[in-house]
Fold each of these.
Amino acid sequence: MKNQAWIDKGNALFMQTYGRYPAVMVEGKGCRLKDADGREYLDFLSGIAVCSLGHCYPPVTEAICRQAATLVHVSNLYYTVPQTELAALLVGHSFGDRVFFCNSGAEANEAAIKLARKASPAGKYEIISLEGSFHGRTLATVAATGQKKFHEGFEPLPEGFRHAPFGDLAALEAMISPATCAILCEPLQGEGGVRPLDKEYLQGIRALCDRHGLLLLFDEVQVGMARTGTLFAYEQFGIEPDILTLAKALGNGLPIGAMLAKEKVAAAFTPGTHASTFGGNPVACAAAVVVVQTMLGDGFLPSVAAKGRYFAAKLDDLAKRYPHLAIGARGMGLIQGLLLTDQGKELGPRIVQRLFQQGLLANFAGNTALRFLPPLIVTEAEIDQAMATIAAVLAEMAG
Ligand SMILES: *Cc1c(COP(=O)(O)O)cnc(C)c1O
């Protein structure tokens, strides 16, 4: 069966939650995907920051196969080797003292919200997050998300969430009340349009938390796991959170999420307070162990930073050629956005549509930027190839 036959079949069956591109992906290798018609795509989205080591990275595939033939699942009433190995790697290379495993980004943030409340004195339950943020699609994480469009139709949302204007430390401080227990933010907003927080701003948020006795929660579901050129994004801001969430790239495509926390916060979770049937599944953990080891390998992180600079410089050059459409690159490491002008924003959806038709996968984030999340194993030649496609599409849009 070819693309159209599968698409027609799927459209009659799925709840229509996604606006999908007309391709049925059947195969992936490295930075490339192939659809049911045999068309090839250069994947500069990586399943939205998931397949960071590229599609079907052989050492991960091998770990999955080996673990699947050994032990696929046991209850968290027992210990497993892959889960323990992964915990040692994450705790050993982060601020965190303890980890909780779950299956997705939203679940990791749910766990973080629950832990922040449980670890805080009675009467402190309110969490302040930032406008433009994205924290997931469950009711609590949707309530934490600072974008109205994700709330509409789902009210009443759980209580205890407030949203502060982006970039305004004084406004954030003014929102802190005796009920506040934590501040939650992404060090770089991904869905919000590839928008990093200024170093001084994020350090200011840390200082606010210290001064008011609040917990600081970082959502690194999208920007953790080497995406920015360090294993965790917070490393580049000179501060540490109290709780950190991870998911997307952790399993290179297998569903897994994690929440890390400092000992004195983590101590609030005692047996029976929180759990997940599938969380820390041995196969997902075996994949994640290889992911973390690979990212910590010689030269990996510096190469992400270097390729990010290379890509950003090319995007900046392109923006100079089309100043009426594009402003320039914004991002960290290999999460890069091409910021569009007002005229460019109008064309955003059409630009990504044309990129797709030309065989380049990207998307339009926060109604402000073309977002590129190539696999971290991308080569300069592949970046050049992507740039040629982006340049051709902008030339076409410029008429
Ligand atoms: C994707 C994402 C989530 C939600 O993750 P899911 O696995 O889709 O639940 C939460 N926070 C951020 C920053 C994300 O990018």
Note: The mean pLDDT is 98.
Amino acid sequence: MSSALPKGQFDIGKMPRFGLIQFADRFPSETGTPRLHISGDVENELVLDEELTGLQRTEIIADFHCVTTWSSLGLRWQGILFKHVFEQLIRPMAKPNENAAFVILKARDGARASLPLSDLLQDNVILADWLNDKPLTREHGAPLRLVAPDHYGYKNIKYINRIAFHVQNPGYRPSGLRFMEHPRARVAYEERGSTFPGWLLRYAYKPLVKPTIRIFANATKFKDQDNG
Ligand SMILES: Nc1nc2c(c(=O)[nH]1)N[C@H]1C(S)=C(S)[C@@H](COP(=O)(O)O)O[C@H]1N2
Ligand SMILES: [Mo]
């Protein structure tokens, strides 16, 4: 639900297209059918596509918080709960190792994020294909994106197409620099990154908001960085 702004955040109004600069001009061309490749410490590596359409649909209304300090309030997302995908499809079909609690999420534009499985199984984490009563646009991650509102924007992977479950971190490399990555990145605890405290990163990141929005809005090179 919408609530007061968390520490260090400001209300930017609309939802700007955003991310690390290297992703600004990457618009995956394949935005039709959601397809998720499931791998890692699993008995069966597999691809989920039609199975996803059989799951119960859910709606959440939530605020979205980018680590660089902008927030977009009261967004209405529709899609399927990550928990349902895991319990009804991934667990019975892929049979991940019981101790596989380290999850890597990958996207068609090459972006990556990781989260503990327990964070992904919360009741407000969805794989969304609709935003504010319209099908998700290519700008915002069509055909499918993760929405984990308790976690900073960089964990909310757009164009998601691969999910890997691991018992131990297999040497995962985050999209950004090491200090930008926090294993959980919870907004409530201002876990903006590792190495430096959240309040310090606030000041470092804030000047990047306007130029980054401009670069993302003006991106014209439609590079397709499909990682399979
Ligand atoms: N695949 C992918 N997912 C991504 C990003 C990206 O560049 N590529 N940027 C992240 C960041 S930093 C933020 S704040 C949000 C922005 O989402 P939006 O572009 O839909 O506003 O997406 C996140 N997920
Ligand atoms: Mo972000």
Note: Residues 18, 66-68, 153-154 surround molybdenum atom (ligand 2) (CB under 6 Å).
